[in-house]
Recover the amino acids of this structure.
């Protein structure tokens, strides 16, 4: 059987999209004001390490955060002078969008110039790049960047664009020029390429030495006023163009609307106003990100208009996109596709190769060490421009370029990643292979995109030489094939590689047939002075410390996989999720409700109960202090607000908001506003659902208006009037539709009236679209992040949330089903109110939506802290019965069971799948020692009625033996591990010696490497990955595991009312956006790629380092050696693919033999 090998490696080069930590590393004090500061402003500043220092005076502020849009967040420190300052970690080179978040409000930095990105004018700064010379302001002739207005008949309005004309445009009135239409990205406008992109300077610096044919550039705004919907092509809902990792978009591109403007209005206007060559061969179109997608759509529809196509980080063109290949080849002179090296480009590269094989001139360029950012697109324009309009003559240089180094080619060194770099010459590589240590010499000869040459190999005393076949060079991508004959069979060895930024290394993936793949590095040999080899750029800047470039000396670690020996089966339930209400995970998190304190019970006072006084099934209503103002609600227009217990909606929501709107008038509305959970998110072209219960005083005769508005009151995004309030409670519902506006979160929901009177409100709700359109459902982006983890189960409802701080504050499942207005809610043990909108049915539907099974936690008679415990016996029996009824609600027959019928009445007649039930949560905190007997009482009752269910003990074997369950044999025990990175590494072989004869299996129901805040950093990811190799290697006894906590709202990390109660959480988010931590992506790699058979493994020469475990008693602990490389191997029994996962925590590259 042929065996395929898939290898995953987690090493210390993972990066996180968003982090929120200050740096304590030594800082080089050579800061200089950013080149993009306002005149005379000293901050922000950048130093030689590419760190940024900011300073803003805000003496009354409580918190200030430096927020790189879509990137890192840095809390600033306040000085005695009222100034807030901070220094970042080293930043990526190039342009960055940022803002200052002062007490939760995002504002521009008063020291910076402003740039349009993320759908708003905001701050920008420039981190000097090692290759910035190609867009620097130089002493060369300069073209003009002209602001041009034109009337669009199709849009029926005046529109603006910017037009670059070459330096000699005004000198020769008879000369005509080709035109490039260059489009911006999502959330940006027509100023983007001229300001952020430095397009004019790039052109000036190419024209001066005669490297390109001069042409006009037209930069128009893709957003057409009044246009809505995506129109032709895909919506712009993906990541927009912008700074490093891009800010939020400006809504959806309407491709059809701009297509009409471009074809019908703009091109004719440019051809009439400027001296253009107004024909198809001399017209090009290009764009970045969404502008690239737009370019692709429009040019394919108008091949009679455009001959050159440039797509920068915006997809590519496949053969299936071209209905008439012959016509395309005749009309299109060039297709140029580019991406940053950190972007996902495999599909684009395949499409480029397919076009090349079809005879179409298609060039692929990859900008080194960049992502979805302006540095990628600046470099892309620099590469694209020399390829345009080659039928025209190149101009004479008007400046003398710098002399090239001795032995260099005549042309100046290109920018990193230049598509024209020549790889002709001798290259050498040495690597381990299946037949031993190989020494390779490649002799390359490049002729444009064609590559020929030879490969010579030495293994011990054996030598051979082969001709290179199918050699190609496009951009910095090199590929070729060599064919060996072994025992009469041809073996095809393919190479695909990327040229380094300095042009002296190629990192190849070497694939031998379908059974071996090796990563190798070929290094350029020094050439003779007259060799035709392109020189490296002058003064290259190393992108990493030289010390990390080579693997350390010493024995090479050996990982041994015995593919003939299967040690066990991988549990099909291995990877899952654990969730509870902490860090605003439900309220203000995955539960999509946007209104905070919708039931006005955040100030409720619950009666005190003890285990002796609490009665199961009896609801105890909350009370409120007189004249209480509703928390998180504010008055509008002089209205007065107070909680009213004399006008309750029902016995569960036994309070209402009394709104005295006697100040209302036709010109001045009065009412209430709610800012949600640190902002109401507004997204373009989105429908929101508003609902509330309301009634009014007899004299009130007017409508109420519900609206979503900016926090400053200047913008109303959507509003609707509601009529029909009477003196009786009634439910109202309406929709609010936002137009094509930029995404934002500094907004509020308002309910107002222009008619004087008194209103009472309850259960005021605002929902955005939800995942799979579930009513009362979950937030889409967070569910999509969870779906990518491919989880098999969801452990719910917690956690401490299951137990509560008292018996009437626990998760009482019967109070979480039915209409939301009849759910009383209760305090979360983490300090805020839970509406119970996310109830038992919603948890089960969450499982259904992600194709997971529930792992149901049932309340077992124990509450946190002083909440108390009910011992086993008659007093515990009502709680046992409650658990049996909860199970019946999930899986009971709707025709023959009471609670199955209730589930059907609630809208879900089909039973859910349920296999696992956990008794309580972390019951080792019960100091009475009652859990063993309580577990037995639940275990016996559940097994009697539902013998197929697996029952889990909440006390695992990681706890002291005296608290273990001994009265029964649990099906599984729940073990919890919260450790630092080294402790996780030390624990990574815990289960290797677990007795396979033990009938009790392991459920790691909560674990995390607690390094990094609010989400794990790279050390956390490496600790997690090391631990997961242990879990996967022992997946025959570790049946399930799940990281915790899963979610954290990162809106307010410090101070009273903060959004985070526990750090190192897997996924972070605010009201508008979300991100996965480095640990999240480690989990994605592990959970999405594994087999169903565990293979026997062994290792030799694994590096170790000393580590001193923290002593629980404060004294010194013995030093122990912990491993630094971890691994696991599984195989898919159907396909034969072996999945090998290797985790390198050493901090440097390692050669590893497999």
């Amino acid at each position: 059987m042929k065996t395929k090998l898939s290898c995953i490696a987690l090493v210390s080069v993972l990066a996180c999209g968003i982090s929120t930590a200050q740096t304590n590393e030594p800082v080089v004090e050579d800061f200089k004001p950013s080149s993009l500061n306002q005149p005379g402003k000293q901050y922000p500043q950048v130093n030689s390490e590419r760190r940024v220092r900011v300073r803003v005076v805000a003496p009354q502020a409580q918190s200030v955060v430096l927020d790189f849009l879509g990137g890192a967040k840095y809390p600033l420190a306040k000085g005695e002078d009222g100034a807030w300052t901070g220094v970042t970690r080293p930043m990526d080179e190039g342009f960055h969008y940022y803002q200052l978040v002062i007490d939760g409000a995002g504002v521009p930095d008063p020291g910076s110039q402003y740039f349009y990105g993320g759908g708003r004018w905001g701050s920008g700064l420039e981190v000097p790049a090692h290759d910035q010379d190609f867009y620097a302001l130089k002493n060369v002739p300069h073209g003009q960047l002209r602001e041009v207005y034109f009337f669009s008949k199709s849009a029926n309005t005046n529109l603006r664009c910017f037009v670059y004309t070459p330096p000699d445009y005004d000198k020769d009135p008879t000369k005509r020029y080709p035109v490039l239409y260059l489009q911006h990205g999502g959330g940006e406008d027509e100023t983007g390429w001229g300001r952020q992109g430095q397009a004019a300077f790039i052109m000036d610096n190419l024209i001066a030495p005669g490297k390109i044919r001069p042409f006009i550039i037209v930069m128009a705004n893709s957003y057409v006023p009044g246009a809505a919907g995506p129109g032709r092509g895909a919506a712009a809902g993906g990541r927009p163009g912008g700074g490093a990792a891009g800010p939020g978009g400006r809504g959806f591109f309407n491709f059809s609307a701009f297509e009409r403007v471009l074809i019908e209005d703009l091109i004719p206007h440019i051809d009439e106003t400027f001296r253009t060559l107004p024909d198809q061969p001399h017209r090009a179109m290009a764009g970045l990100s969404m502008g690239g997608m737009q370019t692709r759509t429009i040019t394919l529809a108008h091949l009679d208009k455009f001959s050159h196509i440039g797509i920068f980080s915006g997809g590519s063109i496949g053969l299936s996109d071209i209905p008439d290949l012959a016509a395309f080849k005749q009309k299109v002179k060039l297709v140029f596709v580019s991406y940053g090296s950190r972007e996902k480009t495999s599909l684009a590269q395949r499409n480029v190769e397919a076009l090349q094989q079809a005879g179409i001139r298609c060039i692929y360029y990859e900008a080194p060490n960049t992502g979805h950012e302006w540095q990628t697109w600046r470099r892309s324009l620099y590469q694209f421009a020399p390829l345009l309009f080659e039928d025209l003559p190149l101009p004479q240089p008007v400046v003398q370029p710098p002399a090239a180094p001795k032995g260099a080619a005549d042309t100046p060194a290109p920018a990193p990643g230049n598509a024209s770099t020549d790889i002709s010459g001798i290259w050498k590589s040495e690597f381990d292979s299946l037949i031993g240590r190989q020494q390779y010499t490649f002799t390359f000869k490049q002729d444009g995109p064609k590559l020929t040459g030879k490969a010579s190999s030495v293994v011990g005393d054996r030598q051979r030489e082969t001709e290179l076949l199918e050699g190609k060079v496009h951009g910095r991508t090199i590929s070729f094939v060599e064919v060996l004959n072994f025992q009469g069979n041809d073996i095809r060895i393919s190479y695909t590689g990327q040229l380094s930024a300095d042009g002296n290394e190629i990192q190849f993936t070497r694939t031998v047939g379908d059974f071996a793949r090796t990563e190798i590095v070929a290094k350029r040999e020094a050439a003779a002075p007259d060799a035709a080899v392109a020189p490296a750029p002058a003064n290259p800047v190393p992108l990493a410390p030289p010390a990390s470039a080579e693997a350390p000396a010493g024995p090479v670690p050996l990982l041994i996989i015995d593919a003939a020996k299967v040690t066990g089966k991988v549990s099909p339930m291995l990877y899952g999720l654990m969730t509870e209400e902490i860090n605003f995970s439900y309220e203000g998190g995955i539960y999509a409700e946007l209104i905070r304190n919708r039931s006005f019970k955040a100030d409720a006072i619950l009666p005190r109960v003890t285990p002796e006084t609490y009665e199961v099934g009896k609801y105890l209503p909350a009370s409120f202090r007189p004249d209480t103002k509703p928390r998180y609600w504010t008055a509008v227009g002089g209205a007065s607000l107070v909680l009213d217990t004399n006008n309750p909606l029902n016995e569960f929501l036994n309070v209402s908001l009394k709104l005295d709107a006697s100040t209302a008038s036709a010109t001045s509305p009065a009412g209430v506003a709610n800012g949600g959970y640190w902002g109401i998110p507004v997204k373009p072209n989105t429908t929101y659902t508003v609902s509330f219960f309301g009634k009014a005083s007899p004299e009130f005769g007017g409508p109420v208006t519900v609206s979503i508005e900016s926090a400053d009151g200047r913008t109303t995004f959507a509003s609707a009037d509601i009529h029909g309030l009477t003196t009786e409670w009634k439910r109202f519902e309406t929709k609010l539709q936002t137009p094509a506006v930029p995404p934002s979160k500094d907004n509020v929901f308002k309910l107002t009236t222009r008619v004087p009177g008194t209103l009472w409100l309850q259960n005021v709700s605002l929902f955005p679209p939800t995942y799979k359109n579930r009513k009362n459902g979950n937030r889409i982006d967070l569910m999509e992040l969870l779906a990518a983890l491919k989880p098999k189960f969801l452990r719910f409802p917690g956690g401490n949330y299951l137990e509560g701080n008292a018996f009437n504050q626990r998760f009482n499942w019967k109070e979480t089903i039915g209409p939301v207005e009849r759910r009383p809610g209760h305090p979360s043990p983490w300090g805020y109110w839970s509406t119970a909108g996310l109830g038992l049915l919603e948890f089960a539907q969450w499982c259904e939506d992600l194709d997971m099974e529930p792992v149901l936690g049932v309340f077992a008679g124990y509450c946190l802290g002083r909440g108390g415990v009910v011992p086993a016996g008659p007093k515990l029996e009502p709680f046992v019965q409650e658990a049996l009824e909860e199970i019946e609600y999930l899986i009971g027959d709707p025709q023959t069971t009471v609670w199955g019928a209730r589930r059907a009445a609630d809208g879900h007649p089909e039973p859910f799948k349920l296999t696992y039930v956990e008794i309580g949560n972390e019951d080792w905190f019960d100091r009475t020692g009652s859990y063993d007997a309580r577990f037995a009482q639940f275990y016996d009752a559940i097994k009697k009625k539902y013998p197929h269910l697996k029952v889990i003990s909440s006390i695992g074997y990681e706890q002291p033996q005296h608290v273990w369950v001994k009265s029964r044999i649990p099906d599984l025990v729940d073990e919890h591990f919260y450790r630092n990175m080294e402790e996780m590494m030390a624990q990574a072989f815990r289960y290797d010696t677990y007795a396979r004869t033990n009938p009790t299996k392991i459920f790691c129901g909560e674990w995390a490497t607690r390094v990094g805040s609010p989400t794990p950093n790279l050390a956390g990811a490496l600790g997690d990955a090391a631990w997961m190799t242990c879990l996967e290697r022992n997946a025959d006894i570790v049946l399930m595991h799940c990281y915790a906590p899963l979610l954290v709202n990162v809106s307010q990390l410090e101070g009273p009312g903060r959004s985070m109660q526990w750090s190192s959480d897997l996924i972070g988010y605010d009201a508008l956006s979300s991100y996965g931590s480095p640990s999240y992506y480690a989990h994605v790699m592990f959970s999405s790629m594994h087999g169903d058979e565990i293979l026997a493994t062994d290792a030799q020469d694994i590096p170790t380092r000393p580590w001193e475990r923290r002593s629980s008693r404060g004294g010194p602990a013995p030093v122990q050696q912990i491993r630094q490389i971890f691994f696991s191997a599984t195989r898919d029994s159907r396909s034969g693919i072996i999945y090998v996962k290797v985790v390198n925590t050493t901090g440097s590259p390692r050669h590893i033999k497999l």
User: Anything to note?
Assistant: The chain is about 15% helix and 30% strand. The chain has five domains: 32-128, 143-387, 425-527, 577-581+777-1093, 593-664+672-769. The CA atoms of residues 212 and 385 lie 7 Å apart.
